[in-house]
Amino acid sequence: MQTGFHTDTGLRQDNQDNGLADPALALFAVADGVGGGSAGEQASACALLALRQAVQEGLSLADAVRSAHLAVEMLQDALGVEDAATTLVAARVTEDHLDYAWVGDSRLYVLSDRHLVQLTEDHTVARLLGEGAAVSRHMLTQALGAAPGDGLQVDTGRFPLCGGERLLLCSDGLHGALPRDKLFAELVQPRDAQRTAEKLVTTALAVGADDNVTVLVVDVEAADMPATDASMDHTPPNHDRNPPDSPAQYVVFGILLAVLAFILIFFGY
């Protein structure tokens, strides 16, 4: 797998986005932090560290996202703040398919056979109310560290792979600035993953992107695929509230404490 990552502060004062590309785990993610000061940046960094550690420990992608949510809540307690939160979209290549999970409005697209498919659905008020609603596109219904009263909803799905697909994970700074046809036009160009990520960001900035812009491009090559039949159907997203006895609540507290300690040291607390 070849990867390309690029991020830019854009018109904002701080960049609260973060990305994760771990080819050894075949794990890729983008997180868009929410919160005043450096709280959003810390939340997104914390979530990605917790996600990676949880996947390394063998948790499912959905439970790894839940553990990231717990890590952000622990960060809030440690900092004495309530507004540290983050979106998260994560994808993992496993054998002949792509598992993915998300919370918030960071998106995952897959370019396959010259068709661009958006796999995620935004957790935003605008999406709930429909097109034309007089609300900000940035208004989330949930995020890691900011779950609604009935619990965090981790949406998951699965997409078949046969090699040759191009994945795009991005923050809303990209998809809020560039419509689907513009994304497609850039993704189909014969550029490597890094140049494609950079071009997407610069194109979004050129048309006036008003937010941090973060892009992670992953090229899945045929050599990455096992010699099996990848004809499975695309599994629609599963909308799953955090169950009360999720293993993420019991297995990963040591991981979370280590992640929290790293974040606090890194940011000078």
UniProtKB/TrEMBL annotation:
Keyword Manganese annotated: no
InterPro entries according to UniProt: PPM-type-like_dom_sf, PPM-type_phosphatase-like_dom
Keyword Transmembrane helix assigned: yes
PPM-type phosphatase domain span: 2-220
Bilayer-spanning residue ranges: 248-267
Alphabetical keyword list: Membrane, Transmembrane, Transmembrane helix
The protein's name in its UniProt record: Protein phosphatase 2C domain-containing protein
Organism: Thermohahella caldifontis
